[in-house]
Batch of 2 targets.
Target 1
Amino acid sequence: MYLVGSDKKMDYVNGPGRNHLFVPGPVNIPDQVIRAMSRNNEDYRSPAIPALTKTLLEDVKKIFKTTSGTPFLFPTTGTGAWESALTNTLSPGDRIVSFLIGQFSLLWIDQQQRLNFNVDVVESEWGQGANLDALASKLAEDRAHTIKAICIVHNETATGVTNNLATVRKILNQYNHPALFLVDGVSSICALDFRMDEWGVDVALTGSQKALSLPTGIGIVCASPKALEASKSAKSVRVFFDWKDYLKFYKMGTYWPYTPSIQLLYGLRAALDLLFEEGLDNVIARHNRLATATRLAVDAWGLKNCTQKEEWHSDTVTAVVVPEYIDSSEIVRSAWKRYNLSLGLGLNKVAGKVFRIGHLGNLNELQLLGCLGGVEMVLKDVGYPVKLGSGVAAAATYLQNTTPLIPSRI
Amino acid sequence: MYLVGSDKKMDYVNGPGRNHLFVPGPVNIPDQVIRAMSRNNEDYRSPAIPALTKTLLEDVKKIFKTTSGTPFLFPTTGTGAWESALTNTLSPGDRIVSFLIGQFSLLWIDQQQRLNFNVDVVESEWGQGANLDALASKLAEDRAHTIKAICIVHNETATGVTNNLATVRKILNQYNHPALFLVDGVSSICALDFRMDEWGVDVALTGSQKALSLPTGIGIVCASPKALEASKSAKSVRVFFDWKDYLKFYKMGTYWPYTPSIQLLYGLRAALDLLFEEGLDNVIARHNRLATATRLAVDAWGLKNCTQKEEWHSDTVTAVVVPEYIDSSEIVRSAWKRYNLSLGLGLNKVAGKVFRIGHLGNLNELQLLGCLGGVEMVLKDVGYPVKLGSGVAAAATYLQNTTPLIPSRI
Amino acid sequence: MYLVGSDKKMDYVNGPGRNHLFVPGPVNIPDQVIRAMSRNNEDYRSPAIPALTKTLLEDVKKIFKTTSGTPFLFPTTGTGAWESALTNTLSPGDRIVSFLIGQFSLLWIDQQQRLNFNVDVVESEWGQGANLDALASKLAEDRAHTIKAICIVHNETATGVTNNLATVRKILNQYNHPALFLVDGVSSICALDFRMDEWGVDVALTGSQKALSLPTGIGIVCASPKALEASKSAKSVRVFFDWKDYLKFYKMGTYWPYTPSIQLLYGLRAALDLLFEEGLDNVIARHNRLATATRLAVDAWGLKNCTQKEEWHSDTVTAVVVPEYIDSSEIVRSAWKRYNLSLGLGLNKVAGKVFRIGHLGNLNELQLLGCLGGVEMVLKDVGYPVKLGSGVAAAATYLQNTTPLIPSRI
Amino acid sequence: MYLVGSDKKMDYVNGPGRNHLFVPGPVNIPDQVIRAMSRNNEDYRSPAIPALTKTLLEDVKKIFKTTSGTPFLFPTTGTGAWESALTNTLSPGDRIVSFLIGQFSLLWIDQQQRLNFNVDVVESEWGQGANLDALASKLAEDRAHTIKAICIVHNETATGVTNNLATVRKILNQYNHPALFLVDGVSSICALDFRMDEWGVDVALTGSQKALSLPTGIGIVCASPKALEASKSAKSVRVFFDWKDYLKFYKMGTYWPYTPSIQLLYGLRAALDLLFEEGLDNVIARHNRLATATRLAVDAWGLKNCTQKEEWHSDTVTAVVVPEYIDSSEIVRSAWKRYNLSLGLGLNKVAGKVFRIGHLGNLNELQLLGCLGGVEMVLKDVGYPVKLGSGVAAAATYLQNTTPLIPSRI
């Protein structure tokens, strides 16, 4: 029981020691970022905030690996960023091809349908990647270019599946198809290899609470010149999410059509500084290292990865399939109640069947080992005959061979 | 020059001493609230966040003075809250009556038009309140009930004008008109007397960065049962801002269709606790006290209030008209550059003609006197022959007579 | 490289993820406490600070398990608290018996000698507890009561040895000896079973940065009525550390002879609240649980505990002996440079021979497993043929059997 | 009523808006510094803390204007710093000349006497500066050099009197007297002109909670080479405050004989960065500007400054004499209870007769005007016939003429 400000009692909050946060978002915020955000409001019309914003817009492009894109920092969540990407580039009735491979792609498709697009859903079994052969067929048939956009989730957070975006571009090029290429990079950007310009992505988006390791509250949308052009004729109704208003204020140099979160702007500055200090490629390598270690632990436990093929393995989240006699929700519940460990639930089709370990954002090797040690204990708690230490051993063997020295300490 | 995290240099930031933040939003955040928000992310699907959310939804109704309303805490700004209020209750083509009295009502009307409503704009001179006689005429004529909603800004932040909502309700009742009553309470709620149930308001909304004294990031929308009913048939396209998704998660007891800002939830808890500790009516009385003192200072300086009649005087912001030979933007610029005082610019029609003193949120008497002392010095800086100390004297004379003891210290 | 405020570059600071702080002090500060301390200064002569201080003085007695003691919150470190304990109760030339069993008892003895007491040093091999048989002999011989005080370190942080204070009291009683019983509880109080009243301890002391889990800056000294009486005639020169000044201000109800740290007072309040919420006995049980797990890991690694007998095993710190061919400093260095893990160095006689794992303060099971996983990797890095996962497995087996549910989450 | 962590209720804490902290210490902490300190503990034996400490020791010399001095950052208060200055340079029985001009010089003299020095007290009326003619006489007579040290408070915080240290040095030189020159700079250094090397000061000291604008907890002592030499033979008993232990660890490059406050080290770094960014001479000029404005306000109110001559006027604190029919404590009480304004009480001889306005540390013009406006209201509350606005007008007239643009915003 914990009292925040006066006499409101807040249940569940305190446990001894730290919370081990291994959900695939929102993720751990580095202390440096928490400090940078611990501040009063400011007048966003003073010269200071535009000066800060200017550096952010310039630097945020680096995490998309784009030089030609135009970024927007919407005060919203990933769901809002989705809506901004769609409504600024498409008109009601437009045909789009969209891949359903798990809960988040499902939700995006639901949004696409509710926004009145004509959605051509390409479904895969949960645990598989997007069916890109189907894409090729559709493009091949679409000589009239009725398909206006391809919508794809780079990394499906529900199943731990990463789609191959380079291949999507290759197929588009192969058929010389002009469809817009819209990418949900919510659980990938800043953690997985992502190359907006090289892959010809037209709109990419992410949320501040994922690999950027901030609180929820900024939906970052980045638009290619082609997407910006499309926005001029897109007929979807939009106001809050309209790029036009932002572009107008960019031109004036005041940047904000409405009030931004001062705290998140300073937080984003600090988060980007940390990313660039570590080096974006090192950050991506670290995510691969921690993910590989996690997959080795899952193997050692004798459990199955929900992701069906290695090519789709996600470096930001691992969905672990539990034996049929176990309810995976019980694992999540028990982890939190006994070990202060926060794991991700199985969602929708895989509810009760998988639990998820999020390993994205500002994390290191020993935090992961603590988590894996905890998962082992929980597995035992719920009746799975795991050999305690086995997963940690597998992970540590890999990590001890691959972890570099911390650059600032060499 | 100030370095946030690594080698990014941030101009303009540091001055000796505190920034005196007197823009009408975002406003000063109490230290207690900054502390409550200085924290890591959490799993929003654990039992803790729903338990916290439940208390917030219950308590936030008190600031609207409603028991029958249903509140929504959108991760957005006031502009987003506007959009949510409109799209959930209305269908494209619906006729609405909307009052244009300043920049913010103008922006809302712009949004209404872009969302394809048929907006019947009732314009007043800037500095005047909404023309409610025109409303009466329109309702009188509208026997067919073609008017679906009345949209009104309770407090126009650009001119410091407060509209009389009780009268709006009276007129609606007089004509027994079923139009929805939608209110922008962005710069009023928690600061001015606001009575959702008593005045029969159907949707009221505010933003966290105004009188609630939080960072930007929560758009609070509160819907009456009638508004909820309307939302079932409203045909405006909406997904992110759709109440339906929230209501579905309310029913499940998990509350959030997508990721909220953990920090803002704890911050809102702390902000509400402070409000209730002081007492909402005391908070409103304090706003009236500080506003009265400000107006007395303006009189003493020999300057005019932009608000043309006393009945419209706003207790959250005062727009001060400067003599023609002065550019009010120069006042704002100089205040910030020399005295670390943040004042509000004149906007649009009153750009260069007024500057604004925001006196809302967690403020006290001596903060205001510091601001007024600063404004006097700036006025002199820009060539207005003010008698230094005159405004402070007028304000202090009033405050010394009216300021109560701090309850916790009696 | 990290820049704190302007252009000072700070080396070594940033690594990806959290620092794993396992030195035996200063220890991890709970976020709740960091938040409580993140505040401006206040006038310590206002009514608020005495009111707060009063609750602290009352509640701090509980961590000493005393009702008759008088606590003092000196703005100092453990070294200062030592000095306060000695100079307030003894006069130059007084004979005292003091036990040398490691670096911290050595430093205290050094202080005792420099303060001109006649120190009768009873030395043990490092790794052993205090030689209480020698104490018995000395008391037996001391019919003239020339021994004025017994000085003993409850828990020697350098070797991980806990002395048996109940036995000290038994021996004192057995010889009916009036010597004062002075105890350094720096790395024990709030973590190990400590009973000031029951054991007849005359002065006990601790530091805020140890099991209380605060920053350094409060040396807490608690005096029995007998110690207070002794302070009236003690001739050691003292001013800053004089209890008399405090007692004078206690009487006046203003409490502070000089300026306290406002932040640490609020921090102490929060730390005590967390301790009492968890329950002091549960906190002590948690320390025992984590310590037992650590010792099991050390066994599994095939390494020796520096503590020579089980009866002396410390529940707050484990000193691990490394094979002769390894320099333990290299372990500490490597842990920090590669894994962001902070371990304790071997000090003085055991420099290079042991490294230390501090497991005190606000810690939980998974944090410990992360640390143990890290130690294993470091051991392998430096050439010790450890089986990765072995220590974690041993610890987890114990912990999985013994960890209770988190009370607030049941 | 405010609850910090669990169910402890804290009275008096909350009022609407900010506390206006105008006691002469502890003073307002800049938000940048609060942020820098909002952090977990660290291992102070890692390479990071010595690297940080090294920059601090180098930079802290600048605030003393010394290149030859050796600074010590004791984890203590000003009272502890006094003790360190005395015990490291003097032996019991040593004759010292000490000036009694107010409560803080009185307390230092009390300490000197309790430390068994032979104190030759030169008393002045409270409100006057040190009687330096008496010093000249004493030195003239002391051909045998029995006087070992001159102890003087640079700025007496109780009466707002600044002594002329350059004259002290001139007199010492005139008589070619080898006495050590020990200076309490607690409420002067970083705010008043202070020149350790130029004035030949042998030990100067300050506290972190004064013009450095940090929390209480660092007593900064700076020793000249002559003082260091003296410390080798000084026979006063000391351990915690002994410079020798620090010097030993300086040589080893680990810097700390015992655990420092990690938070205060980072805070000191940020505080120094802010000072140097503003420019030490600009900081001193700002203190003079705010002090002059305060004195003009006091004149305008028709009240007397406790400081009897202009040459002694303090630029960090103004003690205001109230008419006989008013109890100055009532002013302090009322300011806090009604206006959330913290003023300094009159102490000892001037209790009830003066109240004090501290204007040191990180403050600006508008903060001061708020305070002065508040003092006026309080004066009226307690029955003094002040013309409201009169003091603010006088101060503002001066400030409007003299305040420079904020350099970072030009």
Target 2
Amino acid sequence: MSALKELRGLDREARLLEHVAATMSWDQETYMPEGAVDERAAQQSLLQGLIHERTSSQRVGELLGRWLHDPRAQWPAQGVSRTDGEDLSEVDLAFIREKHRQYRHAVSLPERLVREMAETASRSQNEWVLARKENDFSRFKPWLEKLIILNRETADCLGYSGVRYDALLDQYEPGVSTAEVKDVFASLRKSLVSLVQRISAAEQPDGSFLEQPFPVPQQVTFNEEVMTALGYDLRRGRMDRSAHPFTTTLGSDDVRITTRYDEKLLTSALFSTIHEVGHALYELGVGEELRGTLLAEGTSLGIHESQSRMWENMIGRSKPFWQHWLPRLQQIFPSELKNVDLERFYRAINRVAPSLIRVEADEVTYSLHIIMRFELEQALISGDLSTGDLPGAWREKSRDLLGVVPDTDAQGVLQDVHWSMGAFGYFPTYALGNLYAAQFLNVMERDLPLFRESVAQGNTAPVLDWLRRNIHRYGRVRSAAELVQQITGGPLDPAPFVAYLEKKYGELYRLQGG
Amino acid sequence: MSALKELRGLDREARLLEHVAATMSWDQETYMPEGAVDERAAQQSLLQGLIHERTSSQRVGELLGRWLHDPRAQWPAQGVSRTDGEDLSEVDLAFIREKHRQYRHAVSLPERLVREMAETASRSQNEWVLARKENDFSRFKPWLEKLIILNRETADCLGYSGVRYDALLDQYEPGVSTAEVKDVFASLRKSLVSLVQRISAAEQPDGSFLEQPFPVPQQVTFNEEVMTALGYDLRRGRMDRSAHPFTTTLGSDDVRITTRYDEKLLTSALFSTIHEVGHALYELGVGEELRGTLLAEGTSLGIHESQSRMWENMIGRSKPFWQHWLPRLQQIFPSELKNVDLERFYRAINRVAPSLIRVEADEVTYSLHIIMRFELEQALISGDLSTGDLPGAWREKSRDLLGVVPDTDAQGVLQDVHWSMGAFGYFPTYALGNLYAAQFLNVMERDLPLFRESVAQGNTAPVLDWLRRNIHRYGRVRSAAELVQQITGGPLDPAPFVAYLEKKYGELYRLQGG
């Protein structure tokens, strides 16, 4: 058997186990009875151990040695170093590259640490749900502390050249450094602050009609119609409810999303559903030839987020989209939306107002939420901030960046699931996603000059088709930087996103010189 | 480390993986999107292989060798043969006995066969669902054929002294032979035929009011109330819907049930819910000291069925039970049940009428459904009956035993999930359950002379408590035969069940000399 074939066989087994573990997590977040939490942690820990064995075994190292002098070292700058005249396709090369990345990651982390992280994360998620429900940060604090210690240990095992946080960030957005993110965010923050200032001085649209009671069963009906119309195939997915919306891949033909309903805020479930559909379409659009391998998923969290936020904001919060969907929404909520015309609705769903909850933030202030979390988690990892001081630091940053302060920790530091999952270095990818999305949108507009007319007729298929052809089908074959370069002809650039916001909100708020 | 401690560690890992596999099956039966079926089969196959490795490894054999001269041989009649002065408790001895049984079973079956059975069963269940929906036996036939071949191979690997079917039966009801079942069923059939004849000649109660439309949401409300009142704790379980109701154990604190609703038949979901609750209470009542081991489950399917059928029929279809619950049911369905008094309701839910669907059969004819399946599956395994002739044979037996013939295969040979799961030798345990249950009921009545008064007040806690103390807490520590001997002072005996039916239905139908 060739080395490549054997490596593919081992990869297949690891992938199957990862999908099993994903199913167990999905169940925990949706339907699992609360009493099962301890044993579920033990089940997850065992599965993670089995996956670790399969991705870091000596045999995997030997097989990688066919192409790499030292599989434990960083990826050679020149790519695969020894091919011995072998005819390797782009997919083969990417497979070896990602397999190496995974192997190096796995052998750098002792099995004990992997198991402890999985078990702690599983339990602490449960504690987080209860802490948030009871608005009791102290209940979550010891778990958070343990997760920070485990993350520092992880970073030290993985290695880094700059700061510890680099190693954590690299897990989610390979090849991007803390320093780069700081630079990009500095520029972004400046533009956003200026835009928010000008918007605040302008006349505010009336969004109050969105906050009356909208019975949940009818919301479900509308969400399901939109979700299906966007191309999410229920033979290969499903939608359930959970405390925090997410998308998860349980197999090549099983990508599930969740949402949560707020009876008093129509837009809450709606836009989070469209957001998750964006993630799911990416995972479901991966090329057939990558099926069942580690290449069959999104290439980075930033690119993933570019998909979800393009659907949520650039399509889902656009006027053409609602030209088609508003009449249907009015059929479902006739009395609630009686006097609401397209312009009023469009302005209401795009109202810019600094607020407390990240997942309900508008398109302009959203990235300020991210910048805040990025700064806090860097400080937690470096030790500049203690967990005891975190709720206070949260309130302070919230005041500085957004101008609003949460009354409760449930609406503040306890609002997001990420830290309870042990995920540090994850948040910045959300803002990178906005930047990538705007870069892609520019090119799509050039390729499909009439796509907005199609969206206005309820047909988003051209958009999905463009995304599939240019992004989805490559899975992890091309890195984020390669995709951006190939599609736009240049590197990551915050300018298109700022220009997009200036144009959209300049018109919407009738800003001067916009 | 002592041999026992090491064996317990290995067992723990196998149990965790079995619970993971159970979660994957539960998901497949309840929520999994249809497109995922192929990959789910591969996931299950991998998990079964991992479990097989952990229960049949050389090390397990070596450890068992501490107590057994040859762990591959049948369990020595004298029990553990070498204890070297070790102080083994009843639980330790049972653990070694069951570990040996599992090991012998596992090493007898090649991993290839285990994987093929799991994969085929997973796929064929999906085909069965579609075949039943489309009333197309030919769609299911090739899968059934393959499962029969795999079952014969399984029996040959496991070994048997009488007929091949013995080995299959022993998987579900250890220690019971085909010949014994034939004897018991011969006696049972005679008594049932006589009773059914006398009942058919009597005046029939009117059950028509049960078959009007009962809106499903209200049925759900009532089912959930009953389920909770019986002691099923939703912190350690949950109820969902599936094509065929089942109970499954996903962990020590996670035992789930499913049901299915028929809007036009109130009793369909109701009694299947009570039935599954009976199974779940057994699994949830296992003693703390057995937690997480292979002893923490029902000791045989027959004993399991004794629990579900005792709750379903002997409690759930008794007059005292409805003395409490009928007023509540009438609150929920006021117009539907306006003129129905306790006597009329009691007679209606106990109406004896030969019918097509096993899971909806009455208490008297139910065992005739089982005898029919027992005879057919024996013939399929022996080769006396081909799968092509099965639908015809089904209709013929149905005419002979029940006097009714299904119009469609969906209502006939395709009605049960068992064969599609590859389970042959399973059906007879249902009828054994009836017999065990009546034997236990006799003793319970002696121990708790006032339990019916308590049930009539809506309090079934004394019943659950008695079952926990006498049966549940032992898990698999005591075999079916040991439990029956210990509780009743004698062996398996069909007489109490026949006497129970004669008394109940003699009164209900006012039979002469009853």
